[in-house]
Amino acid sequence: MKKHKNEDGTMKQETKVIEIKMEKEIKQEKTLEDLPGVGAATIEKLQIAGFNDLMGVAVATPGELTDATGMTEVAAKKIIAAGRSMLDMGFSSGLDLLEKRKNVMKITTGSKEVDKLLGGGIETNGITETYGQYGSGKSQIAHIIAIRAQLPADKGGTDGKVVYIDTESTFRPERIVEIAKGAGMDPDKVLKNIMVARAYNSDHQMLLAEKIEDLIVKDGHKIKLVVVDSLTAHFRAEFVGRGTLAGRQQKLNKHMHVLSKLADIHNLCVYVTNQVMAKPDQFFGDPTEAIGGNIVGHNSQTRIYLRRGKKGTRVAKLVDSPYLPDGEAGFVITGKGIEDI
Ligand code: ATP
Ligand code: MG
Fold first, then answer.
1. Using CB atoms within 10 A as the burial measure, which of 36, 173, 231, 307 is most buried?
2. Quick check: CB of 63 below 6 Å from ligand 1?
3. How many domains, in total, are found in the chain?
């Protein structure tokens, strides 16, 4: 009799645990339609403005929502609060984050020295930015990782597909064929797994980045690498003059935010390239700096500065990594991609 009672008690406890779990799952499945006082017309306006899910609303400012829908500020504040309460916006423990880091994959560059500098390769779950002068190797590395990302994880890849946003018409399928052959891969297969889109201006570029989510979620493509080459060229060309700088930075920030979210949610690698400009007032050290300044720098987890070295070599300098020491590695660009000196 006593035993039975005990068993009963245990059973009850188990049921409770399951109930709590289910409640959490249901919470996460809520959509815009669950927001109180929000009708179909408003939802449509929200979606047109890019607020596709509760998280988008929860992290929006009231001003953004009033602009998008014409609702009053009070109403906007109300649905932001509602969105926040419906979502699990809490903290993650350090242990959870360490667990998440275990899923990070590294794409090898083909150069042992550069890989070592990067702690194994260019990693998923974040943005890596290379910046440097023309011909320093930014686009070459983009081509190389677009190929190597397709290798299985134990061969230094991610076993995934690639989206390549090409803003300067510098993507070369012939170069992909050459490097893929050098790595012993089937060039046709490799090319098929790279989805290339030419971006004609900064708005187009931003839109393409926003569409990647659909490629993954709706179309089921296992995209593990997104290349944006160049990240800043259109922005730089379209926003000239001091007066427009704030507008440019705001747009760039939004673009980086979209890329950053993709990297985080889908554990994919975002690789962006960036030009440099001359700093006329700099007398010591390197007289160049990356375009986009803090906005690009702060949104990139890893920053690599590329420059020409002696006798046709190149030097990669790790500028800003959250956990690796700064350092340099030399390499050469060859038919096969990049190799150690
Ligand atoms: P930009 O700012 O102009 O876009 P970038 O940093 O993207 O410059 P890349 O296009 O990556 O520059 O690098 C171009 C360099 O790569 C050239 O100097 C060229 O010598 C070298 N290169 C390209 N293809 C090959 C190849 N097949 N074999 C050897 N070197 C090559
Ligand atoms: Mg280039």
1. 231
2. no
3. 2
